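Deliverable D2.4 — example input (structure tokens):
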């Protein structure tokens, strides 16, 4: 069984519409923050990856399903794991929970590119550090 990265966020006034409901695009921000924190837990950062490996991680595509709404001052938990990898990319599954309720599911296709925007091989150190978080299926 793979591990999941977990990141918690609180919904602030700035995240909501006039009715106190989280604006749909803000879920993408929460997911991005969780991916950034996932890198941090394995001792990496986007800056470190750029400076030490000459790589950038970009979102190629995002498939997101909104199941329930989050509201002002809700505490949310984002769980992330890597579903599949290829030479140059990985698919990360991310789920947002409010208490025990699943409210958002997303599948994010991430690609490693160089500064000329060309796909490059994922650095071995990154794959090694992510290994516990990669699905075995």
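Example output (designed residues):
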């Amino acid at each position: 069984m793979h591990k999941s990265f977990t990141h918690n966020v609180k919904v602030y006034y700035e995240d909501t519409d006039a009715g106190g409901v989280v604006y749909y695009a803000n879920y993408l921000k929460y997911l991005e923050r969780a991916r950034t924190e996932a890198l941090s837990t394995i001792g990496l950062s986007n800056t470190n990856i750029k400076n030490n490996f000459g790589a950038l991680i970009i979102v190629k595509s995002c498939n997101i399903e909104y199941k329930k709404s989050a509201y002002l001052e809700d505490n949310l938990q984002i769980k992330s794991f890597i579903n599949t990898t290829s030479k140059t990319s990985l698919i990360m599954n991310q789920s947002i929970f409010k208490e025990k309720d699943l409210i958002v599911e997303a599948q994010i296709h991430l690609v490693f590119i160089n500064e000329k925007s060309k796909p490059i091989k994922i650095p071995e150190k990154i794959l090694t550090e992510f290994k516990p978080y990669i699905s075995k299926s």
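The beta strands are 5-10, 56-66, 75-85, 89-98, 101-113.
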